[in-house]
Specification:
Blueprint lengths: L1 E3 L5 E5 L4 E5 L13 E3 L5 E4 L4 E5 L4 E4 L17 E2 L5 E4 L4 E4 L14 E8 L2 E2 L3 H5 L4 E3 L6 E7 L8 E7 L7 E4 L3 E4 L5 E11 L2 E2 L3 E7 L7 H12 L1
Parallel strand pairs: 13-20
Antiparallel strand pairs: 1-2, 2-3, 4-5, 5-6, 6-7, 8-9, 9-10, 11-12, 11-14, 14-17, 15-16, 15-18, 18-19, 18-20
Amino acid sequence: MVIGTIYVGLNFFNTTTRSFTHVSTKNGLPSSIVYSLKKDTGNYLWLTTDFGIYKFRRGTNRFTQYSVEPASINSAFKSTGFYQLKDGRWLTSTATEMICFNPVNAALKTNNEPKVEITGFSIFDSAVFVDPFLAKDKAVQLRYNQNFLTIEFGVLNISNIQHTGYYYQLSKIDNDLIYAGSKQFASYTGLPPGEYTFRVKAENGGSATGETSLTIVISPPFWRTWWANCYQELLWLC
């Protein structure tokens, strides 16, 4: 038995061991929001997220997206089921349209996908140019008092932009990917010293983007560094 949830992904129940296995975005699930669930004759599990249709086979943790014609999905999925027609096709719906497809011969998306980009970075609302760090995949180095950050992002593709949904996470702060809807920024205040990885991805009208990440290192104040502690120990011994 499988249970789809809003915000916490999939839960598979083993009737023999009477235990649950949780599948989330950490295991490859494209989104923690799941609306519809149904198995096909090949034992694949099909599901809908906000703007995508995916199929999944247990044991692989691989989700493959169904290829939808550009701009044919104009709002988020809302239907809680797939409804099978007499000819074998399945029907589901968003808030504004019906989507009909045959799971047996459904076309699946290739890896030619748009990419979400980090488009801005601010410290205390002052813009900082981080493109060189992104280009060379290097960490952004900040002082301990540069810890109020805003990170902007977006899919650089004008088609269906109003229906793009974003997901982001800052390691050590966010336990899981956060669904931001169409909001294209994330703000963090009072970050303690440490190394963080910010990652972001998006779904755009049935098309999923690759994931983009940025490493941020906030240095501790000098009085919390190892050499300052050693100096204080020496003074105490004297």
